[in-house]
Amino acid sequence: MKYVSTRGGAEPQQFCDILLGGLAPDGGLYLPEEYPQVAERLAEWRTLSYAELAFEILSLYVDDISAADLKAICDKTYTAQTYRWSRNAGKAADIVPLTALTPEFHLLELSNGPTLAFKDMAMQLLGNLFEYVLDRRGETINILGATSGDTGSAAEYAMRGKHNVRVFMLSPKGRMSAFQRAQMYSLQDANIFNIAVRGMFDDAQDIVKAVSNDAEFKARYKIGAVNSINWARVMAQIVYYFKGYFEATRSNAEEVAFCVPSGNFGNICAGHIARMMGLPIARLVLATNENDVLDEFFRSGVYRPRATAETHVTSSPSMDISRASNFERFIFDLVGRDAAIVRQLWRKVDAGNSFSLADGPLAARLPDYGFVSGCSSHADRLATIRDVWQRYGLMIDTHTADGVKVAREHCVAGVPMIVLETAQAVKFAETIREALGRDPVRPAELEGLENLPQRVEVVDATVDQVKRIISREC
Ligand SMILES: *Cc1c(COP(=O)(O)O)cnc(C)c1O
pLDDT tens-digit profile of 20-32? Predict the structure, then answer.
């Protein structure tokens, strides 16, 4: 399988060549040159374990790692030991257990990995793939990132202790929850460097951009990234759409709907690809919070990214985005993979403008892709968390609550609805207390996490301070 850029200006590449990079050289995103068609294989896949299913699906996209090695990587990644934080202890071996709230309304638990958010599903695989490819090539990489919470911790837990990889993770000092800080800063692995900058998330992000734009520094220190545009992350996420489908249905003639709490469009992009591969998905329901850029698009055909200053700070913070970095992948498919159209549309986006597909021929094509959408507010989240707790005795996090709220608006009789559970409630204790008047449930092993010794270096928000730490450690 070769990978092409959504902007059409890059040489087709193999999987391992795009694994460690970010954007294609022409500024586009990589996608496989075609989607393998698997409708015929569903019967054979229905009874596979998660690791076996991951191997079957990944094999279709990766042909420059031997089957035996890819199998070993899948087996090592998707273990009941790594994804052990299920509220449903008896089903932990499923990796992504499905819980039925009603016979046709389910939660798919994706947040049972080490950082209790769905990003572990892909990031743990990335950690093992990076180590494998770097070992084979005799190379090293220094991952530089900025986080406001979930991504940074998922990256650190995936890369800790890996050969030839260091992680330098910037976070805004004092801005994350005590739990999130403790999760990251309590890591004692020698290859993990937590850097708290005196400033906001955007300051940290700007420093990462400035360092990455310094070509000489970037090459000298082999600076890399693991952000959400990485193809391997999207690919890994395809697997649980299949697994969720098999759990929620009895036969491959049935259709289901998925509802996905969305920010950067990475998670639901994997659902779109699963559907393009032939998985019987009737609908992909996209849920946003008050940051409704994507809901607006699916309602009106207008994509209007917001300025960072216009982004609402909400109680489902991992969905607080003003532009959706993976959205270009979907538009590439929507426009019939015509890279010239994508280039033209993203000339507008990159200049800070919007585009509209409302009056053209593309608007007529949009319904073929199965998307519907809705948005949710802080009050909706509180009401939904309370309702699910009172009715079913289940505690859900704020992002999942956005999903449940929107999913309920799009249920169709006879089509099971599967809401992706993207994080556990314990990560967002403040809102849980506001909704339920009590503390969230916490896995026993994480009692006292906040009291562990922490390892973090605090610096002023300047590029030089961060470069100094990198050059000191490498
Ligand atoms: C990252 C994240 C999301 C958004 O996922 P995208 O792939 O960016 O759309 C939703 N919920 C949680 C808990 C997250 O960490």
Answer: 877 888 989 999 9
84 CA → ligand 1 middle, Å: 20
Nearest CA among 421, 430, 385 for reference residue 405 = 385
Q: Please identify, by atom number, the ligand 1 atom nearest to the C-alpha of residue 261.
A: 10
Residue from 399, 400, 402, 405 to probe ligand 1 pocket by mutation (most atoms less than 8 Å from CB) = 399
User: Is the minimum distance from the CB of 400 to ligand 1 under 6 angstroms?
Assistant: no
pTM (predicted TM-score): 0.96
Residue 209 annotated among the catalytic residues of the structure: no
Q: Domain ranges in the chain?
A: 92-115+232-436
The secondary structure of 249-284 as a DSSP string is -SSTT--EEEEEE-SSSHHHHHHHHHHHTT--EEEE
pLDDT at residue 308 is higher than 80: no
Residue 105, strand partner residues: 102, 417
The Å distance, Cα 118 to ligand 1 centre, comes to 7
**CATH architecture of the domain with range 92-115+232-436:** 3-Layer(aba) Sandwich (3.40)
Task: Give kind and range of the element (H or E) at residue 122.
Answer: helix 119-137
Write down the catalytic residue from 71, 76, 91, 119.
119
Measured between its terminal Cα atoms, the distance across the chain in Å is 35
Atom of ligand 1 nearest to the CA of 119: 15
Tokens at 355, concatenated: 């585009």
Q: Running DSSP on this structure, what letter comes out for residue 423? A: B
Over the stretch 345-375, which tens digit does the pLDDT of each residue have? 999 998 989 999 988 888 888 989 999 999 9
What's the gap in Å between 385 CA and the centre of ligand 1? 18
State if residue 149 touches ligand 1 by the CB under 6 angstroms criterion: no
Q: Residues of the chain with pLDDT > 70: what percent? A: 100
